[in-house]
Specification:
Elements (H helix, E strand, L loop, with lengths): L3 E2 L2 E5 L4 E5 L3 E2 L6 E3 L4 E3 L12 E11 L6 E6 L3 E3 L8 E3 L13 E3 L8 E12 L4 E15 L6 H64 L1
Parallel strand pairs: 5-13
Antiparallel strand pairs: 1-4, 2-3, 6-11, 7-8, 7-12, 8-9, 10-11, 12-13
Length: 220
């Protein structure tokens, strides 16, 4: 499920009252199928409920392999990144919000994915809302289960979408062919009718001319 947080902040100037509209925050679920020996983005977005309140946040990532029962801390981002697990040293890159302390996108990127990366990842946002007279601390937690495969497999929804696309294209082409045949027959029929009318007019004119000539000969 996605959540959209679209907020505004008033700004009062000496001449007019205006409002600033900030960008929307949308919580999108991360992909869950990674390909071995390739890169993979672990998505984690936590939208701030009170968009008008200044805040700062840090993000921590944890990992639990298939054969493990507890999560291990692997990465933290608090204005700078730090990989804490030897299994991921040199393979994790920050892929979230940049140039701000008010983090809402805590995504990271795994380089050179291995089968040992299969498991459950946990993303935790530690956010502090800074009100005028006090600060309020909150956190958001998300779990993402990743499966590492030799090559990317297509889901049923993707296959059905492609099939429907081809069916629509074929149906549209068939409809265009039918329309072209109909228009051709209609134009052809109109052309034949015009030829018949032209022939009838020509015969009428020829007959009238013949009658006029016969009348002139009788008069002589």
């Amino acid at each position: 499920m996605t959540f959209i947080d679209l907020y505004w902040q008033p700004r009062i100037s000496s001449s007019t009252d205006t409002s600033l509209c900030h960008g929307a925050c949308v919580e999108v679920d991360s992909d869950t199928e990674a390909v071995a020996n390739e890169g993979f983005k672990l998505g984690c977005i936590s939208c701030k409920m009170r968009g008008e309140v200044p805040a700062k946040a840090s993000v921590d990532w944890y990992f639990k392999a298939l054969d493990e029962s507890n999560f291990s801390h692997i990465y933290t981002y608090d204005n700078e990144s730090n990989t804490t697990d030897p299994r991921f040293i040199g393979r994790l890159r920050w892929n979230g919000s940049k140039q701000t302390r008010d983090l809402q996108d805590g995504s990271i990127y795994i380089l050179n994915v291995t089968y040992n990366d299969t498991g459950t990842y946990q993303c935790i946002f530690n956010r502090i809302l800074m009100y005028p007279n006090y600060q309020f601390q909150t956190n958001a937690r998300k779990n993402i289960t990743i499966n590492v495969v030799p090559r990317l497999t297509r889901g049923m929804a993707s296959i059905l979408s492609e099939v429907m696309m081809y069916v629509s294209i074929i149906g549209l082409q068939f409809w265009l062919v039918v329309e072209m045949i109909y228009c051709y027959r209609k134009i052809s029929a109109a052309g034949e009718e015009a030829l018949r009318e032209s022939a009838a007019e020509y015969l009428a004119i020829a007959s009238e001319s013949k009658d006029n000539c016969s009348g002139e000969q009788v008069a002589e």
